[in-house]
Amino acid sequence: MDYGHPIQFGTFITPVNSSPQHPVRLAQLSERLGYDLVTFQDHPYQPAFLDTWTLLSYVAAATERIHIAPNVLNLPLRPAPVLARAAASLDLLSGGRFDLALGAGGFWDAIEAMGGRRLTPGQSVDALSEAIDVIRGMWDVTTRSQLVGGQYYPVKGAKRGPSPAHEVPIWIGAYKPRMLRLTGAKGDGWLPSLPYLQPGDLQAGNARIDDAAADAGRHPSEVRRLLNLGGDVSVDQLAAFALEDGVSTFIVMGDDPTMLQRFADETIPAVREAVESERRRRGTIVGARRGAAALARRRPGIAYDEVPESLRENAVEPGDFAYRSVKSTYMRAGAPGLVLRPRTVGEVVDALAFARRHPGVPLGIRSGGHGVSGRSTNDGGIVIDLGALNDIEVLDEATRRVRIGPGARWMDVAQALQPHGWALSSGDYGGVGVGGLATAGGIGFLAREHGLTIDHVVAADVVLADGSLVRASADENPDLFWAVRGAGANVGIVVSFEFEVDAVGEVGWAQLAFDASDTAGFLRRFGETMEAAPRDTTLFLILARQGRGGDVVGQVYGVVDSSDPDTIIERLQPFAAIGPLIGQQVSLAPYAVVMANASDAAHDGQGEPRFRSGLVAHLDADVASAGAALVQSGSTPWFQVRSVGGAVADVPPDATPYAHRYANFSIAAIGHGDRFERHWIQLAEHFDGLYLSFESRQGAEVVEEAFPPATLARLREIKRRYDPDAVFRDNFSVAVQDAVAG
Ligand SMILES: Cc1cc2nc3c(=O)[nH]c(=O)nc-3n(C[C@H](O)[C@H](O)[C@H](O)COP(=O)(O)OP(=O)(O)OC[C@H]3O[C@@H](n4cnc5c(N)ncnc54)[C@H](O)[C@@H]3O)c2cc1C
Q1: Is residue 401 in a domain?
Q2: 193 and 319 share one domain
Q3: Shortest-distance atom of ligand 1 to CA 329
C-alpha cells in the first residue's frame, strides 16, 4: 500500500555531550546535503547526552531550512501542556520547522529517578492519548471554550496558545498493538525503527493502523509512515518499503559524516528515481490529502473538487490549519468556505473563473484585509486573497513611476520608496493594503499637498468579470480607468497599479493631545486652523470621551511635509492654540517610519464592523455642535476628522468616482445603538456625500450618498458593460438590481 506522501529523508544524530558542537555540525551538514529533517533521540535521564529540547532549539537557530524533530520525545518527563507550549514556541522561532514525535515511555526506573511517574504499559498509552489531545488543544487558539484534560493532565484553567507557525504533525513511536491503534486513531505519523522490527511487522503494523484510522473515521493516508534506518539497507529495499509498505520518510541513523554524505549522494537520488518512476507508472496521486475531519467542515454550495489545479496547493478550507489566519479580516470575523490565494495573474483569472461558477455564493476580494465594510471576508463564501501579489517595482526613475501589486501593504510601499526619496500619499495605517485603498480613494497624511492615492494612479491591470485581463489608463479603456479610481471594487480585480509618486524627504510627524472639554469650540477651531494652514500640513483629529462622564480628549496627529524644524514648528504653532495642550510629541522622520505602525499578526477581527462616514466642506458652528453632541453622548468610542481639501480639490469632481472634491473634511465614527444613531443622523444632516472606505453599511442608499447622481449613472452604465452579471456584488455594488436593498 502506497499512501501517496511525498518522499522525504532525515538524519538521526546522537546528542552526545562529550563534544557538544558535534551534533550541531552534523545537523548543519544534514541541511547542506539536502536532507529534509534532522532528528535527535531523547533520553533525559542519560548523563552522556545533551538535553534534547535545548539541543533542538540550538540547532534550530544554527540552521535555516531543515525541519527539526525529537525521535522520539520521552513524554513521561515532558509534561504535555508545557511541551505543547515549547513545541509551538520552537516552531514559531524556527519559521515552522519543528515536527513532534512522541513516545509513551520505557526505562521506568530511570524515569522515576528523574522525578517522573512510573506507569504501567496500559497507563502510558492512555497518558499519551490524553497528551495528544491536550497538546492539540493548547495549540488551538481559535477555540474559546475551556481546555479539557483528563486523569494525567487535568489542565484545569490552563490558557491556550501559542499556536505554532505551521500544522505541527504528531508522529508516534509505536510497536505494540495498543500504541499502533492509538497511532491510527490520533497520530499524524508512525515512526518505528527498522532494527527493532521483525519481518512482517511493518505490514502488520500498517494493517492495525489502517483499521484504527478507519474506525476513527479517518483515511489511512492521514497517517504518514516514517522509518528509522539502521545498518545497510539497499535502494531496492527502500523503494519496496515506499511502494509496498507506504513508508515515505526515511531517517538514516548514524553520526558518520562520510556515511551521511554517501547516503545523500547515492542512495537518496536512486530511491527517489525508483519510487517516482513506479508511481508515475501506477498513476499514484502524490500530495497531502485533507483528512475526514477537515472534509466534514466544508461548506455547502462550493464545488471543492473543481478548484483549479493551479490554486489547490494554496487554497485554504475551514478544516485547514492555515484557516485561522485567513478567515477574518482586520475589522470583521469571517467564516468563508474557501480562501483562494493566487500567486500570479493567471491564477487570479483561474480563481475568478471558479468563483463565477458559484453565482449564489458570496464572493470577497481581499488585498490587505483592512476594508472597513469587512466584505473581504464572508460566511460560507469564496474569498480571493491577493496578498501574494505584492511586488513593488520602480519602472522609471525620471517620472517616478512605480508598479505595485494589490497585496502590498502601505508600510512596505513607504519602505520601498524611501531610498529613492519618494513617497506615495496613502492612509494613516501601514497595515492597509494597496488594493482596497487605491480602488477607493486614499485619504492620508500627504493628501492636502499631494492629493488622494487614486490621484496618483496612472494605469492599472484589471481582471474583468469575464476573466479577461485588460489595461486601464487615460488612453486604454479610459472609462474603466475612470471607474477604477474610486469604485474599483465594482468593475474588476486590479492585479497591478502603476503610480506616479512624489519626492518627499523627511517629514515632521506631530502628535498633540488636548483637553477638548469645550468640544464644539475645539472642533470649530481645529477646522478653521486646518483650512488656513498651508498645504504641506495635513492633520487628523480623534475625539473620545475618557470613560463614563469623563473629559473629552482630542488627539491631533499628522504630517508637516518639511524637513526644516522651523517650518514644522511654524505650521504647528496655530494648532497648539486651539485648546489646552496636555501633551505633545513632534519628531523629524522619514515617511516610512511614520507608516511603520502595523504588525504582521494575522487578522483576528471580531463581530461586525459598525462605521459611519460623511464629508463636509467646513467644521462650522452647526457641524461642530452636532459632532460635539455625539462625542459628549459617549455613544462613540472613536470619532475621527481627517483633513482633505488642498490638492484633493484641484482634481475636477467628474475626473474620478470620488466626486466630493469640495469637502475639506472626512468625518468617521464607530458606533451603534439608538443613542449613536440619533446623534449621527443629526450630524449627517450637514453632510454632502460620504467616503465608502469608512462606511460599513451596504445597499443602494449608501452608494447614492457616496456617488452624486451623474457619477452614479456613469458608474452604473460602466458596471453594466464590464460586469453585467454583477459578479462583484458584495462590496458597495452599484448594480441596479441591488438598488432596493437597505
Ligand atoms: C486601521 C485602518 C486604518 C485606515 N486608514 C485609512 C486612511 O488613512 N485613509 C483611507 O483612505 N482609508 C483608510 N482606511 C480604510 C481603508 O482604506 C479601506 O478600508 C481599504 O479598502 C482597505 O484596503 P485593503 O486592501 O486593506 O482592504 P480589503 O479588505 O482587502 O479590501 C477592501 C475592499 O476593497 C475591494 N478590493 C480589495 N482589493 C481589490 C482589488 N485588487 N481590486 C478591486 N477591488 C479590491 C474589495 O471590494 C474589498 O472588499 C483604514 C482602515 C483601517 C482598518
Answers
A1: no
A2: no
A3: 29
Percent over 70 (pLDDT), the chain: 99
Q: What is the pLDDT of residues 646-667, one digit of tens each?
A: 999 999 999 999 999 999 999 9
* pLDDT per position as a tens digit, 117-157: 999 999 999 999 999 999 999 999 877 788 988 999 999 88
Its domain, for residue 339, covers 297-385
CA distance 735 to 699: 10
Q: What's the rounded mean pLDDT across residues 599-626? A: 94
Both 685 and 713 in a single domain? yes
CA distance 555 to 584: 10
Do 275 and 340 lie in one domain? The reply is no
- Does some domain include residue 291? no
- Residue ending a domain, among 324, 359, 385, is 385
Pocket test for ligand 1, best of 327, 372, 495, 648 (most atoms within 8 A of CB): 372
Residues 114 and 161 in one domain: yes
What's the 276 CA to ligand 1 centre distance in angstroms?
46
Alpha carbons within 13 angstroms on the beta-carbon side of residue 267 total 24
Residues 567 and 690 in one domain: yes
Pocket of ligand 1 (CB under 6 A): 329-331, 364-372, 375-376, 386, 406, 427-429, 432-433, 435-437, 439-444, 488-489, 493-494, 693, 731
Distance 674 CA to ligand 1 centre (A): 28
Q: Is residue 68 part of a domain?
A: yes
Is 692:658 a contact under the CB 8 Å cutoff? no
Report the distance separating Cα 129 and Cα 111, nearest Å.
Answer: 19
| Residue at which a domain ends, from 385, 413, 438 | 385
Contact yes or no for 463/488 (Cβ under 8 A) = no
Query: Which whole number is the average pLDDT over 260-272?
Result: 97
Asked if 60 and 142 sit in the same domain, the reply is yes
**In a domain? residue 563:** yes
Number of neighbours of residue 358 by Cβ within 10 angstroms: 17
Digit-coded pLDDT (tens) for 419-473: 999 999 999 999 999 999 999 999 999 999 999 999 999 999 999 999 999 999 9
CB of 454 closer than 8 Å to CB of 485: yes
Residue among 352, 365, 448 to mutate when testing ligand 1 (max atoms within 8 A of CB)? 365
| Per-chain mean pLDDT for the chain | 96
**Statement to judge: residues 269 and 315 lie in one domain:** no
Helix (H) or strand (E) holding 37: strand 37-40
CATH of the domain at 518: 3.40.462.20
The residue whose CA has the least distance to atom 39 of ligand 1 is 435
**Residue among 328, 366, 391 to mutate when testing ligand 1 (max atoms within 8 A of CB):** 366
**What is the number of structural domains in the chain?**
3
Helix axes 121-139, 177-186, angle to 10 degrees: 10
Dump pLDDT digits (tens) for 357-415: 999 999 999 999 999 999 999 999 999 999 999 999 999 999 999 999 999 999 999 99
- Amino acid identity of 629? A
Same domain assignment for residues 339 and 230: no
Residue 371 CA, ligand 1 centroid: distance in Å: 4
